[in-house]
Amino acid sequence: MAVNGIPPAPPGPPSLPAHPDPATDAILDSGLLHELSHAFGGPFHFLLPHRFDANLAALRAALDEAGVDGRVYYAKKANKAAVWVERCAARGAGVDVAAPGELREALGHGVRGEDLVVTGPAKSDELLRAAALHGALTTVDSLGELDRLLTGARTRSGALRPARLLLRRLPPAQPESRFGMDGAEIEEALGRCVRAGDAIRMEGFSFHLSGYATRPRADLAGHLVDLCLKARAMGLRADRISIGGGLAVDYTAAADWHAFLAAQRPAHYHARKSFAAGDFYPYHSPVAGAAALRAVLDAVPEGGRESLAARLRGTGTRLLAEPGRALLDRAGSSVFRVQGVKDRAGYAILTVDGTSLSLSEQWFGSEYLPDPALVTPAGRALGQGAHPACVGGATCLESDLLTWRKIPFPARPAVGDLLVYPNTAGYQMDSNESSFHDLPLPPKIVIEAAGGRGTGGGRPRWRLDRHLAR
């Protein structure tokens, strides 16, 4: 309310802190990041493979607790780094690939062909051929793709193993999706698989479902189990289903997320840029990661009488899951150096040594919201101060802002400070990266403790990631 006729000052821009992560904090406090920034002369991403291992173990535990025969495949599109594929090879996890380069990367880092699932729409003949030659499981998205796979399988008949495939079902609840086949097309595909005989091995069904809700996944999974039973009656193997990915990641606490959504408005963004709440990724999810997989397994599919887990067990059906983001939760962060500070009315504009092309959410008409940490040469800036600043990239584009939001930093950022965006391994690091202005792509740095596990127990050690396709 007004005091002596003077209206109160508008509240400052809200913060959105990420969940605390001791492993990341240890790196921020180690002094290593400033050394790496100096060494590489630009932005970089650091990766924490022990977090990937923990996420994989948690998903496997969810399957084991439900008594479900299942397999976790890492969706490689979520992050190009080789270290994740190396972890899959070492720990017996599968890898989901959707392009010839991804398939070559997976094979080159030790994943067996039979441990690959090949997804994506309208796959090239090159990809279909390579998948069949290496014994990979291929999700077939259309009747035309099935015909091309069958033609290649018949050409190789008698010389090599049969082509392994899943038929992808168009979600009845999302008929506008461009992925999968409708009921009539599935019927026709089953007939073609039967007629193909030993040239193929039809192993089941899959789907691609948008969003992060667990109930629709359980409902559609139950439908796929019914399709498996129908296919088995036709003489096909059909002993597994794939529910794809879509397991959410929980970035921030519920109270912080809801407070942010309630407070944020155009005045809190540079140039009064406007975002609706629906424009943002749901940075808080009450059911995420392994808990989301448990929720899918515990749910009773529409029209059923028992949980999906019980249905899978009772029918001898294997469950495949292809998470990307969920396996990368807290497995990496992105580091940018402040190289310019410009004052505006009530806030500052920071310019960093990279671009928003290396923080992908901005290029989907959205914003990556978890607060970046401010790391000075003396250490992390902590405290209750509020020094609002947006963050721009080092290009001549007005739209090149890593963060339109006026972030309330605890201290005034200065040239030479580092901004560390937390938990960016899932999709943020490289799905839209570009060497615009001939700026180098940020390298990926793998960080481990001296013993190779976690980052505790002394100064962490690092190496460059071994991604082949540079």
From TrEMBL:
The keyword Transferase does not apply. The modification N6-(pyridoxal phosphate)lysine is found at K77. The active site is at C396 (proton donor). GO terms for molecular function: diaminopimelate decarboxylase activity. It holds the Pfam family Orn_Arg_deC_N. Residues 7-20 have a biased composition (Pro residues). One of its GO terms (biological process) is lysine biosynthetic process via diaminopimelate. Residues 1-23, 450-470 are annotated as: Disordered. Residues 65-259 form the Orn/DAP/Arg decarboxylase 2 N-terminal domain. This is Amino acid decarboxylase. It comes from Streptomyces albireticuli. The gene is lysA.
